[in-house]
Amino acid sequence: MLSFLSLLILALTVVQSQPDTNSPPSKEFIASKAHRMELLLLDRELNSNLEEYIEELQSKIEVLQRFAEMFRTPLEEAKGREEEYLSNPLHSFRLIRHMHEDWRHVEKFMRQPVGKNQIKFIKGKAKEFPLKEDAEEATEAFYRIIRTYDVRGEDLVHGLIDGVRYNGSISAIDFYSLGALHFQWGEYDKAAQFLSFCLDLVEPEYHSMYNVLGFASSEVFLLLARCFMEMDQEEYARRTLMSHPDLAEHSEPLLSLFTNKKHAKLSEDLQRALPEEFNQICRSSHQNKPSRLHCRYNATSSPFLRLAPLRMEELSLDPYIVVYHNVLSDAEIAEIKRIGEPLLIRAGLGKKNTNQNYKVRTALGAWMPDDKMDASGWPVLHRIFRRIRDMTGLIMNSHQFLQLIKYGFGGHYDRHFDFINGSFPITQGDRMATVLFYLSDARHGGSTIFTHLKLKVPAERGKVLFWYNMRGETHDLDTRTIHGACPVIDGTKTVLSCWIHEFDQMFIQPTYRPGGRVFPYSPTEG
Ligand SMILES: *[C@@H]1O[C@H](CO)[C@@H](O)[C@H](O)[C@H]1NC(C)=O
Ligand SMILES: *[C@@H]1O[C@H](CO)[C@@H](O)[C@H](O)[C@H]1NC(C)=O
Ligand SMILES: *[C@@H]1O[C@H](CO)[C@@H](O)[C@H](O)[C@H]1NC(C)=O
User: Fold this and answer.
1) Domains 131-269 and 287-505 fall in the same CATH topology
2) Is the distance from the beta carbon of residue 421 to the nearest atom of ligand 3 less than 6 Å?
3) Could you tell which of 295, 300, 302, 465 is best to mutate to test the pocket of ligand 2, judged by most ligand atoms within 8 Å of the CB?
4) Which CATH superfamily is domain 131-269 in?
5) 436 or 508: which leads in pLDDT
6) Mutate to test the pocket of ligand 2, among 294, 295, 296, 298 (most ligand atoms within 8 A of CB)
7) Which segments constitute the Fe2OG dioxygenase domain (predicted)?
8) How far is the CA of 394 from the centre of ligand 2 (A)?
9) What is the percentage of the chain residues whose pLDDT exceeds 70?
10) All structural domains of the chain with their residue ranges
């Protein structure tokens, strides 16, 4: 039975734990399948270790059982005829000798620790476990998938995400952590939904295991009651508390506590959910508007393309957005991954002044070329720059960079523009056009979407997406190009992006800016 004081503490501290920010995650469990593979292997190792421990424990139990049996036999023999038993010299001798020494040895044996090695093994492996931040990140990634693809509790029970049935399902404890996260972010109705599913999945026969795992159903009831109070549904809150034996007698003081100490909801700019207009385009229910645009082989822009025309698909004429197919060979893709992957670091972007709480992007990124890059990677980079030139007919300067970006499950990029618009100085002018190579298939999710145009481009290996961020001759920033990346559900999405700058085009594309500004101008002017 929980005391009211401990309930009170529980009621107010539940899900308010903060990450220990000074220990950054050392592994990329979300973005790197290889790191998750290590975890899986470690899990397997720990499970064998647990089995060894059980064996050791069992063999001790067997020895103890034999002792109990052996010691019980004479006692049973003596039962009801103790006087007679004790007059037998064999029995007297045995009893005294036995009582003098046997129990001492048994006590020593009982005290011997079992499975010291296995316990040491787990302790030693603890440094390889995901950190609290990793677990929170995984929960957040899953939250994004849930929100963007509108996954409901009953879908999760059946492993159904955005129309795809996944093997496996999630446990009561998993539901609790999702409920707690939704509560923390002020989404009380969703939180209540997940907590109810958690309670449905609680198996009474697992009670002792839940205890070991630090999971108490009273916490779920408390949090569920708080959700109802936050939604001004006091009657539901009361009923929730009344239905738990430990909480029933404290329900009134708990209700008034929840009334007086409302949960501090996150402010608008800390809200984690991607906007609904974004989410709707990501879902499989969204279909691009049928267009009159055709696929064709574009062989006009360079001698290279006249020899090897690329299949081009026009997605939009204004703004100009096209997809080229089969631009890079498998060998080239493998080569870029070989040189780029060792350079990958966190490329998460956070909104300013929000303690990085809201993540605009969750991915790994690397710039190429880079000092640390394997020099044998230069030829493939040169080939790619030339391919971009051939494809787009635009000029690439000699200090051009490519950015490799890798999204794991739940990895996303909120709406943004690629143009810089003077937010930092750049000598080659603004990013006039963007070229995005897809180096892997995201099996599910991970599309690139243009929210204003309601256009979805699935991430498919070998494709290249190309668009202009500025309008034709005026070079006005084209805000219709606002775009983002849907959370990846299954697989890893790797893209290579390149920005083509306006000043590099000065000899092929004369620019007229309204207001009579002469091109080229110094970027500091504008
Ligand atoms: C689901 O599991 C079954 C049996 O383990 C397996 O045969 C099947 O391929 C799995 N399906 C998916 C989509 O992973
Ligand atoms: C071929 O591509 C270039 C550069 O993207 C473009 O300017 C041109 O209009 C395209 N040609 C055709 C026939 O679509
Ligand atoms: C570009 O920056 C200027 C000055 O900060 C601002 O007024 C303008 O709205 C920005 N344009 C876009 C499209 O963001």
Assistant:
1) no
2) yes
3) 300
4) Tetratricopeptide repeat domain (1.25.40.10)
5) 436
6) 298
7) 397-502
8) 11
9) 84
10) 45-127, 131-269, 287-505
